[in-house]
Amino acid sequence: MPSPTDLDALSNAELRALVITLRGEVAELKRVVAEQRAEIARLKGLKGPPSIKPSGMEQATEPRPSASGSRRRGRGAKRVGAAIEDRVLAAAVPAGSRFKGYQTYLIQDLIVRPVAIRFRRERWLTPDGRTIVAPLPAGIDGHFGPELRRFVLAQYHQGQVTISRLVALLDAIGIAVSKRQVVRLLIDGQGRFRAEAQDVLCAGLANAAWVTVDDTGARHKAQNGTCTHIGNDRFAWFGTTGAKSRLNFLDLLRAGHSDYVINPEALAYMRSRSLAGPVIRQLAEHEAKHFADRAAWQADLDQLGISALKVTPDPTLIATEGALWGSVKAHGLIKDTVIVSDDAGQFQVGRHALCWVHAERLVHKLDTFTDHHRAAQQRMRSLIWWFYTDLKAYRRDPTPARRAALRARFDRIFKRQTGFATLDRLLARLHANKAELLVVLDRPEIPLHTNGSENDIRGYVTKRKISGGTRSDAGRDCRDAFLGLAKTCAKLGISFWDYLGARLGVPQTSAIPNLSELVANPA
Description:
Layout lengths: L11 H33 L12 H4 L62 E3 L5 E3 L12 H13 L4 H11 L5 H9 L3 H17 L2 E11 L2 E9 L4 E6 L4 H8 L6 E2 L2 H9 L4 H9 L4 E2 L2 H11 L10 H16 L7 E4 L9 E4 L1 H9 L6 H26 L3 H15 L6 H12 L1 H4 L1 H4 L8 H17 L5 H20 L3 H9 L10 H6 L3
Parallel strand pairs: 3-8, 8-9
Antiparallel strand pairs: 1-2, 3-4, 4-5, 6-7
Helix pairs in contact: 3-20, 6-19, 7-11, 8-11, 12-13, 13-14, 14-15
């Protein structure tokens, strides 16, 4: 390139050619800078979470339908649930016409209209001076009838309608109700529903062969918290708390019990968490083994001097976790139940299994920078998908020979050295989780993923986005209880509308037993 002093000697044609060349170089430099900025922003996360599509392993490894059964079956007509009312429509016909019967045409309709009933209750004065007033009909609890209360609960908890829109809807229908009254309909007097939700959790944890767990963020009283889901294919339960920890999860597993118990299971838990031997011996030899609540337990720790110890791991924390686990076992919960999670540390208690979809996702979302990296990543994903397909086949037909072959094959896959350092470290990490990833070989009935929990908790996330957080403990407990009851009804094949009608005493509603009985005794 000519120096600035040489530019004066250039002709117009030479200057024009020089400018064209420089413009091309500048454009190329701008392109390179833009690519580098985009890469730096991606690596630093300046654009938020990366947009990573689901790997599709679960769907891709499902068995393909046979050619003869590949044709999709129609859903068929749904059965009409309402009683059918016959109405005859007359036709204008000319004289001499012959009657040929009827042509049936069925419609479904809905009647929504306000009803106000004024009960005139007889009052009598007995000879001994007592006043007797005629009782209200069954199902009347307050100044709003059971049908209206069912409508409000179904719209809010199942229909995901906000309170303000629910008030506007009721007002449009012709119901005179305020926002505060709607809030009271949703919260006040719902202790029986909350108790039934707790019973469902007790029955599920006492009888389930497996449960899946997951959690998501929650807002309560303008503070960040956590909503934890526990469930399987027969029940769902939600609990919102202020912390995300193993201590919190163990507290939820007690299913409403508040005691702390020192028993062999509690001591074994403490040993597994490396609590000091002298501390375990103190607790084992101490006369008191059952503590009614947190205050009694803390007083015992203070008396033994355990709460004053300042070592790692924290003796108070580990001992408390152990006492909670002892309470869980003392109440007959988590007997031989496998807990399937996404590898979050707080869920690693008892017999624990890991979700394969989350494990494969680590490989799927790994950043690659060269063709070699991408080839190694795709090769490992193919091997994992193939292995996952065979795990599904094993669940359908488990045999000792296939179990041994799958264990050996797991080692061959996850001990590979690909030359991609980040991928190799990830494979070593997954291989270290071999026992938890292969629990299914000993317990073929458990699922290979936590998709059930993720699908269930999506309802809570939707509610959080629509209605925000809760402001009172009663509101939080009701939201958790009704969401769990609605999910449980769906899994048991029960209409949530019918369930609410049965519990609220709506006339002409079929009785529905306590959901905990249905969870504990599958048909």
